[in-house]
Amino acid sequence: MSIKIRKIGNLNFLTVPESIMPLAQEYYVFQGRDGVIVYTPAEENPFTSDKFIKQHDFSQTEEFSGPMVGKEIINDQ
């Protein structure tokens, strides 16, 4: 299937064929180095969502404790 870009005023439009059922109302659009145009559904980033952050524990503890004894000691000399 092939579609053509429509120019209306200063804007370019790519139509979505009837055979493609959009899963979202809003999309991000990117163009790759090779000219590929990619549309991805616009979704909220869960890592910046206050609701998501409140529901999850992002604290981190070290697996091993105690003094450093090997290659993990960095010597700047």
From TrEMBL:
<protein>
    <submittedName>
        <fullName>Antitoxin of toxin-antitoxin stability system</fullName>
    </submittedName>
</protein>
